[in-house]
Design goal:
Blueprint lengths: L12 E6 L2 E6 L5 E3 L3 H9 L20 E7 L6 E6 L6 E4 L6 E3 L3 H14 L3 H17 L4 H22 L1 H8 L5
Antiparallel strand pairs: 1-2, 2-3, 3-7, 4-5, 5-6, 6-7
């Protein structure tokens, strides 16, 4: 197999492990190529609390994400990449509509992680309660994927508990000192 070339600067892509996920990185500009689902796996490994935030770029490509033509080509299959906005952030990424790989410039992975961490930090206890119900429903709907869905549920439950503690410190204190017999 020939070596893949960087869609940004034509540098050589080399294998690298990022957050326990094998990806390709440009030796010149530091950009990163993620095959289908590798970005999600790297994001989940970067911060366990982010695992339930699943933005599937390709599942929602027509509706959710701003799409523009990119002047870059896919290092895997030479298809013209499309520039997409990651969820409702201001982070533009390049994606291949054919092989569903994703190109991130050198600082974009950290920007995505920071964006998602800010998103979970700004959630209210009411929003997390609704998300707990949705995650529980997902566990019931997808019993074949129960282990993964249960991990997502537990991540949201941890965030819900943290948010309750932050929003209602007196209640949290009272409950923690309540004698249980």
């Amino acid at each position: 197999m020939s070596h893949m070339k960087c869609p940004k600067c034509d540098g050589k892509l080399q294998s690298k492990t990022l957050k326990k996920v094998k990806i390709e990185e440009c030796s010149k500009c530091g950009g990163m190529w993620f095959e289908r689902d590798e970005l999600k796996r790297a994001k989940d490994s970067a911060d366990e609390d982010l695992r339930w935030l699943d933005y599937d770029i390709f599942e929602s490509i027509e509706n959710k994400y701003l799409k523009k033509k990119s002047n870059r080509t896919c290092p895997r299959d030479n298809t013209n990449l499309e520039m997409l906005t990651y969820s409702d952030s201001k982070i533009n990424i390049d994606a291949c509509p054919t092989c569903q790989g994703i190109w991130l410039d050198s600082d974009e992975f950290e920007k995505i992680i920071n964006y998602l961490e800010d998103k979970i930090a700004s959630g209210t206890s009411g929003e997390y309660a609704k998300e707990l119900a949705r995650q529980f429903s997902d566990m019931l709907k997808e019993p074949t994927n129960l282990a993964s869905e249960a991990k997502d549920f537990m991540a949201v439950l941890r965030l819900f508990e943290k948010r309750i503690e932050a929003e209602h410190p007196n209640l949290t204190y009272a409950l923690s000192n309540f004698p249980i017999r």
